[in-house]
Amino acid sequence: MSVARVIPWLDRWGTLLLVYLLPFQTRIIFEHGVLAGAPSEAGTVSLHLTTALVLALVAVRLARRAGDGRVMRSKTALLFGVLVIVALLSLIVSVAPRATLIATAHLIVGGAVLYLIATAPSGREVRLAFVISACVQAAIAVGQFMVGRVYPSTVLGIAAHYPEVPGTSVVEAAGMRLLRAYGTLPHPNILGGMLALALLAARGLFARSRAASLGTSALLTVGLFLTFSRVAWLALAAGFIAHWLVNRRVQSAARLPLFIATLVLMLSAAFAPFVAARVGMSGRLEARSLTARTSSIEDGAALIAAHPLEGVGMGASTIAIHVREPLRPGYGIEPPHSAPLAAWAELGILGLTLLVLILVRLGKAALGAGNIGLIAALGVVVLLDHWAWTTYGGILIFWAGWGMALRRT
Fold first, then answer.
1. Residue 164, pLDDT score
2. Rounded mean pLDDT, 246-264
């Protein structure tokens, strides 16, 4: 096979492989990060399998010049480049330079994923790979729920999570602790976000097979439900409502949302005490979760008040909080539960402005592509949680979501 044929082949199948592997956290860890005696991702030095694949694919894509060259020269790409430069310059003020370098590298990889998906040879194939990967994650989630624990796997990059161990994400009701599904991701909220995006991205993929459409939607819905992620549930609802408002004159616009809503109601009836605890935020664990979320917002506001212009350094918000409160245990410190708030705390007002401008421009482009549902879901995720800015796996899934939103369905 000639080079002229090999490069397109590598580009196509390498991109699809990358999209499939996005939720897998396989990596080589060189040094574990520690914050006030607790494990911390902020200072963990590692190399993810997906990072190596992204770098290789960018080289292939540029060699092939398959993507429109205007993408690299667009205002959005320019703004993203300036955001990366600001992140690097934050080393000057950073309270944790190593964490800043790691977080900046993650941001660059996220931008590369956005570029690779936005310029991929086939938008439909990318969405199909994402949905298949999400279905695998949903199946893993069901298995984790059935056995009641998450077993570790070095190959798949899965950490152990047992409901009886403090720090594991569970939902508690009637004296029972129910494990929230993780999939292969580091937190149920990230898995929930991915499954919500997959349900919206699957629109139109299986138009020729109603059975495949309903079966895929059912599996993804069950997996999403088992994450017990309020933000993910809200993101999915916002996505379907936005899509229906724009397409309400189309008779089929409400069929899939009604099917999913019916399935969710059936699952909610089966797990009524746990759903009531999550939705009503009642019980000891839910009160603690609400307190932690509120505390993270207050921590972010305090960092912004102290460093409104320059921030505390990319990826260094948790460490900066520890510096402010050295007696506070490390396991109780979380980034601000809002990506824009975390960006402001870490990169100052300029970093926040750049992020908002990038998302607004992406939103306008995605709206022109007819993906109002994905825009709404991504907006909810970025406003109400931090993983799209702070967590490697979440960063990749978030920017992959925008990459799919830019492609016409």
1. 85
2. 79
Q: Which amino acid is at 121?
A: P
Helical H segments across 210-283, by residue range = 210-227, 230-247, 255-270, 272-280
Question: Which residues, 6 or more positions from 131, have their beta carbon under 8 angstroms from its beta carbon?
Answer: 198, 201, 202, 205, 216, 220
pLDDT digits (tens, 9 = 90+) for 37-67: 788 888 899 999 999 999 999 999 888 765 5
For residues 100-127, one letter each, b for 16 or more C-beta atoms within 10 angstroms of the residue's C-beta and e for the rest, the string is bbbbbbbbbbbbbbbbbbbbbbebeebb
Residue ranges per structural domain of the chain: 3-405
| pTM passes above 0.85 | yes
Beta-carbon-side half-sphere exposure of residue 85 (alpha carbons within 13 Å): 8
Directed axis angle between helix 339-368 and helix 317-324, to 10°? 160
| Helices 3-21/123-147 angle, 10° precision | 30
Tracing tokens 């990072």 back to the chain, one arrives at 51
Query: Could you tell me the two tokens for 81?
Result: 């480049």
